[in-house]
């Protein structure tokens, strides 16, 4: 019977830091506290993460990476491009709302990083855009979409759903019932699909 491998030190630190973020929030989380629970010295933590901010950003980046893996799988699926586009937008919107509701401390870190245009958010937006581009290009190649201009069509999709996928906007809508937002997003997705299919942009 094989023994499961132990997590690497940096993975263990991220797991502990994520739990401390949930329990204490960003301000009360300390490198010393994370190090003690992980069985390390705080000096050892700094070998992997140069600062507390880097450690917290890495926790947020791990969540964003999971989202990216999920939406990349949507782009890789055999569905028609218009169905993929709908699933992509819904997946991003739901992930944001789920995080806001179930992991508010983590979502606050994400919002702060977005407002400060920190590198982890810039990288994440770039990866999201690349996946969206793949779907739009596939739709054009298979004649599902008839975009007049590729860049304008991609920008239209992003602009149309900003309220539902931008973390700052999502937090502003925290008090809006989820069912109301879901209905509004469904309506916007119908507009986006129709615009691409009919070549309005």
What do you see in this structure?
79% of the residues lie in helices and 0% in strands. The protein is mostly helical and 201 residues long. It has two domains: 1-50, Homeodomain-like (Arc Repressor Mutant, subunit A); 60-198, Tetracycline Repressor, domain 2, CATH 1.10.357. Helix 4 (52-76) runs antiparallel to helix 5 and helix 4 (52-76) crosses helix 6 (104-115). It is elongated and about 60 Å long. The protein starts with 8 loop residues before the first helix and ends with a helix. The model has no long low-confidence stretch (mean pLDDT 94).
The total count of helices amounts to 11
- What would you call the shape? elongated
CATH classification, class level of the largest domain: Mainly Alpha
CATH topology of the largest domain: Tetracycline Repressor, domain 2
Structural class: mainly alpha
User: H/E element string?
Assistant: HHHHHHHHHHH
Question: Helix coverage percent of residues?
Answer: over 70%
Counted beta strands: 0
- What is the assigned CATH homologous superfamily of the largest domain? Tetracycline Repressor, domain 2
């Amino acid at each position: 019977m094989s023994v499961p491998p132990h997590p690497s030190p940096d993975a263990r630190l991220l797991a502990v830091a994520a739990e401390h973020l949930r329990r204490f929030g960003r301000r009360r989380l300390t490198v010393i506290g994370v190090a003690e629970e992980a069985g390390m010295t705080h000096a050892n933590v700094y070998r992997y993460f140069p600062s507390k901010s880097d450690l917290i950003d890495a926790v947020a980046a791990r969540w964003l990476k999971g989202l990216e893996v999920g939406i990349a799988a949507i782009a890789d699926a055999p569905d028609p491009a218009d169905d993929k586009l709908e699933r992509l937008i819904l997946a991003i919107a739901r992930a944001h709302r789920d995080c806001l509701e179930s992991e508010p401390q983590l979502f606050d870190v994400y919002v702060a990083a977005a407002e400060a245009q920190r590198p982890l958010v810039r990288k994440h937006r770039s990866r999201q855009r690349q996946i969206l581009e793949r779907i739009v290009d596939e739709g054009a190649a298979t004649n599902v979409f008839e975009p007049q201009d590729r860049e304008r069509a991609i920008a239209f999709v992003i602009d149309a759903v900003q309220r539902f996928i931008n973390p700052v906007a999502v937090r502003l809508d925290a008090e809006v019932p989820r069912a109301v937002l879901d209905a509004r997003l469904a309506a916007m997705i119908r507009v986006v699909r129709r615009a691409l299919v009919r070549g309005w942009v």
